[in-house]
Write a structure and sequence with these properties.
The chain is mostly helical. It has one domain. Helices cover about 80% and strands about 0% of the residues. The chain has helices at about 1-25, 30-50, 55-75. Helix 1 runs antiparallel to helix 2 and helix 2 (about 30-50) runs antiparallel to helix 3 (about 55-75).
């Protein structure tokens, strides 16, 4: 159990550093890539550190759908 938390934490740190380095680049789709990394970070925190993986499937599905709708709205605007 503690090993899973540590591995998740390491990936969160890697995603954060990757986002920081990508923010200064001239890559055409940098905003989309950073938003995708933010999505992965949010899911990791919600499912591993907030114990959403043990919650009812309704809440799991609701969170994922809300996040997808929210990110779609951000990309459209």
């Amino acid at each position: 159990m503690k090993n899973t938390f540590f591995i998740t934490w390491v990936f969160l740190m890697l995603f954060t550093l990757t986002s920081a380095f990508m923010a200064g680049s001239n890559f055409q789709y940098v905003a989309l890539a950073i938003l995708g990394l933010a999505f992965l970070k949010f899911m990791a925190v919600a499912f591993y550190f907030m114990e959403l993986k043990r919650a009812n499937s309704f809440w799991q599905t609701s969170l994922v759908l809300f996040l997808l709708v929210f990110m779609t709205i951000i990309l459209i605007v």
